[in-house]
Design goal:
The structure holds two protein chains of two kinds. By secondary structure, chain A is α/β, with parallel strands linked by helices. Chain A contains 18 helices and 19 strands. In chain A, the strands form six sheets. A five-stranded parallel beta sheet of chain A has the order 4-3-2-5-19, sandwiched between helices. Chain A has a five-stranded parallel beta sheet with strand order 7-15-9-10-11. Chain B is α/β, with parallel strands linked by helices. Chain B has twelve helices and 20 strands. In chain B, the strands form six sheets. An eight-stranded parallel barrel of chain B has the order 3-4-7-8-9-10-15-16, surrounded by seven helices. In chain B, strands 5-6-14-11 form a four-stranded antiparallel beta sheet, with no helix packed on it. Chain B has a two-stranded antiparallel ribbon with strand order 1-2. In chain B, strand 9, helix 6 and strand 10 form a beta-alpha-beta unit. The longest helix of chain B is centred in the N-terminal third of the chain and has 14 residues. Classes of the chains: A alpha/beta, B alpha/beta. Chains A and B meet through helix 3 and helix 9 of A and helix 11 of B.
């Protein structure tokens, strides 16, 4: 989308500055402001210190939630942060972006006694914020082992693995496609969930352990090959995420005005002044996940007059949580279910989208009913998922895939000895930040075990 | 609604709640505000001989807080009144004149010579007060000068000073006891022997609140040094209740009127003290922490409680629980209770399990058929009440008596026959019944 294209037309209505800068700044303030010390103590007191705590069992990284809350209660914030970060090195970001309402907070026994959980996410943020604000050291690096590990990908899984490996004494080299580390934390998460430069401050904290060399602007398959990495390093971890976005395969999809949600969100996250971003008057989002909600809400908050989300199945099948769906509704966004786009229309620039109603057949398959309806649209965002790109170098050689993603075993080993994979690029992954962190951690633990077992081995590639 | 009016030693007040001798009764300004708020009476802050004592101008108070900053325990190093005696007497006179329906008493602390009592008691009584309270309890500062708790810890001194007070006073004399003794009965007996009309208890408990975690010095401190203070507030109520009940049930002190003091914060605390033998109540910390308006809950709650129990006056409640207090050796060792967990109410926090596992008798499951479920194992449960105590859901765990059959833990039959330690076969000193 460029300015001059639509400057020649009266429609579509796509322009920057729909709201003044001050309003936009307010709209993109912290959506869940941090707890004050007094509020945190009261909230911490609500924790029952459960035995075999359901919240801990619900946390993909297994954070000992009652233990960290007890340390808030006892005014031991450094200890609390350590309890969180030893299981989840991105505990600061996860405190902001985890769908806690379907994880730890859903499991909280307080739901049973009073219909409201302990606000674990906010407490986790309270305990960890001082780490980044005051630059507190939390972990010490073990003596160097002399082993070298390549971590490909700078997102949550890669960062989690790199930190753990460096802490265990290995020398880590990170290869990152983007200009900044952080992956979706830096480029993908809705701006009001991680305000200011938090993602980079967390990266700085992680790198602060030492022993991690970062090489940005390096894409696997283009700037460096897997074979080269295998040769130069004792172990390789692939945490490349999902580089490609799905297309709809609908006529008119190449019209100007039809774009990828993730690209716009990345642009938004990197924008110095959000009031300079072009915003459509009527925006349509296609998809049912977190990205769909994020792009819709952010467009509303940038001043889009009307935002519609259209999803081909029902509310229960949306991968966006109920909490996120409610957020969208509270922003005045209209959610349409059981409809799929069948045509994008316009002259060069998009004008309207035609949808067909859908229904689920007895066998679970989705089919169109033939009934159609249209929505006027200045911009359409595709938010229908991402895929592992074929030219990222992971398809090279004998690496097995499943469902288009890399196949790994429980230890996160790929089919190639000495090569591990973690995060969104792995088959069966649920695409949550917190799961990616756990994946990276598990891979790092196994790499460490493998490297130590092979210390005397002349050829580490033969296991 | 039930009538809360009180007649304690012939001193009438619209309700049994008096403000204890303490900072809230330091002067007319405070006492007038208290009476406006509805307090039944006030014991004026302890009077002493001129020249007045001097208080520290640093911290006088320290508190133990919950995380919501609720004051759970409180302590102080304030001394008796630091105002001239004449000023206090003038104000006492005026307040009594302005509030004839309220109880107004003077707390006094005088040195251990009869002349001081002969001089001061009639002078104070002349203000029109309804009674005296002898401060034999203050545990800090004054006790270093041979007064307060220094008197209250020596029964002979209590008796001697009480006799002097009674000799020169025409109005009732209450002796306020210190809890800083091994056994509360000898001081109470001494007070009665000296002619006291009543005892009031407890005064505050010797205490140090904590250290300052930065300086590693005692906290609170005055210019770097601290001194132990008197502990009070909700945390001390159980200690006070025990001492009140001891006096209420002991043959030598039974019938001695008691003014109950110690952590009374809401009306339920008042019920505790009354049922365990107090017939008057004094409050300080709650007023210091919340202000005088808490009297509304105290009186309203107590009146509604009496209504609910079908009682028309507090006298029907006084001492009701005293017969249930006994020595351990008289407890029925044949009686068996088992904890029972209401699965409908259980929120599955697992605290009952872990405390039973770690600190008691391993009598609560955490898994049943592979599912998170907390059930009492009767064959292990000793009925200790630990699970009930830690369960966050009120009413979820209850203690249920075994009425028949056998105790699956001991294999012994449950019997209605009582057996206490005095007759138990394991007691080498048991009474031979056959």
């Amino acid at each position: 989308m460029t300015q001059d294209k639509h400057a020649n037309r009266c429609s579509p209505d796509v322009r920057p500055g729909r709201l003044d800068a001050a309003t936009i700044e307010k709209n993109f303030g912290d959506i869940r402001p941090p707890l004050s010390p007094a509020a945190a103590l009261v909230e911490a007191d609500r924790c029952y210190f459960c035995h075999d705590a359901p919240c801990t069992n619900a946390c993909p990284t297994g954070i000992d939630v009652p233990a960290f809350i007890q340390k808030i209660r006892s005014h031991n914030l450094p200890g609390s942060a350590h309890t969180i970060l030893r299981e989840n090195i991105l505990g600061g970001m996860c405190a902001r972006v985890c769908p806690t309402e379907v994880l730890c907070e859903e499991a909280c026994v307080r739901n049973g006694s009073e219909g409201g959980p302990v606000r674990i996410g906010l407490l986790q943020r309270y305990a960890t914020d001082p780490v980044y604000e005051q630059g507190l050291p939390v972990f010490e690096r073990a003596p160097e082992t002399g082993k070298r590990v390549a971590v490909v990908g700078g997102g949550p899984a890669g960062l989690s693995a790199a930190h753990r490996l460096a802490m265990l004494g290995h020398a880590v080299e990170m290869f990152c496609r983007d200009a900044k580390l952080g992956g979706l934390n830096e480029y993908g998460i809705a701006a009001y969930k991680t305000v200011n430069d938090f993602a980079q401050r967390e990266v700085d904290f992680i790198l602060g352990i030492g022993g991690i060399d970062v090489r940005t602007g390096m894409s696997l398959g283009q700037d460096v090959s897997l074979a080269e990495l295998q040769q130069r390093f004792d172990a390789v971890l692939l945490a490349v995420g999902l580089g490609d976005t799905n297309e709809l395969g609908v006529p008119g999809e190449d019209l100007d005005g039809v774009q990828n949600a993730v690209d716009y969100i990345a642009q938004l996250r990197q924008a110095g002044d959000k009031s300079e971003l072009p915003v459509g008057r009527r925006v349509v989002v296609i998809g049912g996940g977190m990205t769909a909600i994020d792009i819709a809400v952010q467009n509303r908050r940038l001043g889009a007059e009307r935002v519609d989300i259209v999803y081909r199945r029902g509310p229960d099948q949306m991968s966006a949580s109920g909490h996120e769906q409610e957020l969208a509704k509270s922003e005045g966004i209209v959610l349409h279910h059981w409809a799929r786009p069948v045509a994008f229309r316009g002259d060069n620039w998009l004008r309207e989208v035609e949808f067909e109603r859908t229904r689920q057949e007895a066998d679970g398959r989705l089919s169109g009913t033939g009934e159609t309806w249209t929505l006027d649209a200045d911009v359409v965002f595709r938010a229908v998922g991402q895929t592992l790109s074929d030219d990222d170098g992971t398809s090279a050689g004998s690496m097995l895939r499943a469902g288009g993603k890399i196949r790994v075993d429980a230890r996160r080993r790929t089919s190639i000895p000495g090569v591990w994979a973690a995060g969104d690029c792995v088959a069966g992954h649920d695409d949550l930040t917190v799961t990616a962190v756990q994946d990276g951690k598990l891979a790092a633990i196994d790499i460490d075990r493998w490297l130590r077992a092979n210390e005397e081995d002349a050829d580490p590639w033969q296991t | 609604m039930a009538d809360l009016s009180s007649n304690f030693l012939g001193i009438r007040s619209p309700n049994p709640f008096w403000l204890a001798s303490a900072p809230p009764t330091d002067k007319a300004y405070n006492v007038n505000r208290a009476f406006e708020a509805g307090w039944g009476g006030a014991v004026w802050k302890t009077l002493g001989e001129d020249p007045p004592i001097v208080n520290v101008s640093g911290p006088r108070y320290g508190a133990i807080h919950s995380n919501e900053r609720r004051v759970i325990g409180f302590n102080n190093i304030e001394l008796i009144t630091d105002r001239p005696l004449a000023l206090n007497l003038e104000e006492l006179r005026q307040v009594k004149k302005d509030w004839p329906d309220r109880a107004l008493l003077a707390s006094v602390m005088l040195p251990m010579n009869e002349q001081a009592w002969a001089t001061c008691i009639p002078m104070i009584e002349d203000t029109g007060i309804d009674g005296f309270e002898l401060n034999f309890g203050c545990p800090h500062g004054m006790s270093e000068r041979g007064m307060g708790a220094a008197v209250g810890q020596v029964p002979d001194y209590i008796r001697m000073a009480t006799e002097w007070a009674k000799k020169f006073a025409r109005v009732p004399v209450i002796v306020k006891l210190t809890p800083n003794v091994a056994n509360i009965l000898p001081p109470a007996i001494a007070a009665a022997a000296g002619g006291a009309d009543a005892v009031s208890l407890i005064n505050t408990i010797n205490s140090i609140m904590r250290v300052d975690y930065d300086t590693l010095t005692m906290y609170p401190a005055t210019d770097g040094l601290g001194s132990h203070g008197g502990y009070c507030g909700p945390a001390v109520k159980p200690i006070a209740l025990h001492m009140v009940a001891e006096i209420a049930r002991h043959p030598e002190t039974r019938g001695l009127p008691i003014s109950g003091i110690g952590g009374i914060t809401d009306w339920r605390d008042a019920v505790d003290f009354l049922a365990l033998g107090a017939s008057n109540l004094q409050v300080c910390t709650a007023a210091m922490v919340y202000g005088f308006r808490i009297i509304d809950d105290l009186t309203d709650g107590l009146a509604r409680f009496l209504d609910a129990k079908g009682m028309t006056s507090i006298s029907e409640l006084v001492g009701r629980a005293v017969p249930s207090v006994t020595d351990w050796k008289f407890l029925n060792l044949n009686y068996v209770e088992k904890a029972h967990i209401d699965q409908e109410l259980c929120i599955k926090c697992g605290r009952c399990h872990i405390v039973c596992e770690d600190a008691s008798h391993q009598a609560i499951t955490d898994m049943v058929d592979g599912k998170r479920r907390f059930e009492v194992i009767d064959a292990e449960c000793v009925g200790c009440n630990l699970c009930t105590s830690v369960c966050p859901v009120e009413g979820c765990i209850s203690m249920r008596p075994l009425r028949e059959g056998e105790d699956p833990r001991t294999g012994r039959p449950v019997t209605a026959e009582k057996l206490n330690w005095t007759a138990h076969p394991n007691n080498p000193m048991r009474k031979q019944t056959d």
